[in-house]
Amino acid sequence: MNPTGLAPWAVDPWRSRGRRIDEGPAAPRTEHQRDRDRIVHSTAFRRLVYKTQVFVNHEGDLFRTRLTHSLEVAQLGRSIARQLRLNEELIEALALAHDLGHTPFGHAGQDVLNQCMADHGGFEHNLQSLRVVDKLEQRYPEFDGLNLSFETREGILKHCSRHNAELMCAAEPDGPARRFLDGTQPSLEAQIVNLADEVAYNAHDVDDGVRSGLITMEQLDGLALYARFRDEALAAHPKLLAMPPRRLLFETLRRMLSALVYDLIDETNRQLAKHRPEDADALRQLPRIAAFSDAVREPLSELKRFLFKELYRHPQVVDVTARARTVVAELFAAYVAAPQEMPADFAGASDFHRAVADYIAGMTDRFALREHQRLTGRDLFAL
């Protein structure tokens, strides 16, 4: 065990690879605590409260937003980190930052912006999250962005094509995109956050799907993963049959979340025992270490397939998604045609089309709807 009390393969909070612009030590905070604090105080983080996952903001007050989702991922990630003796503050920073680049209206907004930007470098929300913390936040006198540590920036960049990695490495040879050219892995902390993200959205999409009425508990009963924990819940608490059905749903999901977290911890420990990395750098040279067991992987995949078919492709969601796509496409066209409708720092940017994408990507659902109505005179989501 190293002096920090962390596992040897954890990212040492006192030995960061540094920031693009050196600011000196942050003591008594570690560099990753400092990153976490900057993310929480950022404008982009506050906007997540009005960016939704599956349901558009006007559809109800109780559905998850990007903010509540990020908090759930952070809670799961820290619980896992504590058991594996990993860097909790780094995991928390990654969890809170991982959705900062998401557009309004979830993946529908991203897909449309990517189409609009086809001749101008494309658009991908994961790259946008890094762009937010590297450039778009305007809070400090000495630099644009949040000037986060290498480890946090690396973990934010979860996906990257080889083409984009080459472009990024040309500007920053040893930056967070290098691993996509070298074929190495991110930190174990980043790997854990990726899977905690998956656990969180699968569970809360089930909850929100039932709450919305788009999927039913009877449908869920046919899924092996859900049925297993429903049966456990009923065996432990037979009185649930006489209670409102949501009590049974909550207890089932609570048990499912716990089991997935413990499975992830156990399987990751098995992989660590198998490969025995000496330190965090050695771990990067190995195959992915964070993983679910074979016993969980297929039932979890079945749940994901169910959600894709029955929730994400439900006719009501598809209809709302189509309208959201129209909003984003027409906003992009309107701003390209009339740049003066945007704030001056976007309208006057040298990379104009990228600035339009930045402006739209930063919008909340409800601001995008208001802007669309202002510019077009149409309300596509009128109740």
TrEMBL record:
PROSITE patterns: HD. One of its GO terms (biological process) is dGTP catabolic process. Residues 66-202 form the HD domain. The keyword Chloroplast does not apply. Keywords: Hydrolase. SUPFAM superfamilies: HD-domain/PDEase-like. One of its GO terms (molecular function) is dGTPase activity. SMART domains: HDc. It holds the Pfam family HD. Residues 19-36 have a biased composition (Basic and acidic residues). Residues 17-36 are annotated as: Disordered. PANTHER family: DEOXYGUANOSINETRIPHOSPHATE TRIPHOSPHOHYDROLASE-LIKE PROTEIN (PTHR11373:SF43), DEOXYNUCLEOSIDE TRIPHOSPHATE TRIPHOSPHOHYDROLASE (PTHR11373). Belongs to the dGTPase family. Type 2 subfamily. This is Deoxyguanosinetriphosphate triphosphohydrolase-like protein. It comes from Rubrivivax gelatinosus (strain NBRC 100245 / IL144). The lineage of its organism: Bacteria, Pseudomonadati, Pseudomonadota, Betaproteobacteria, Burkholderiales.
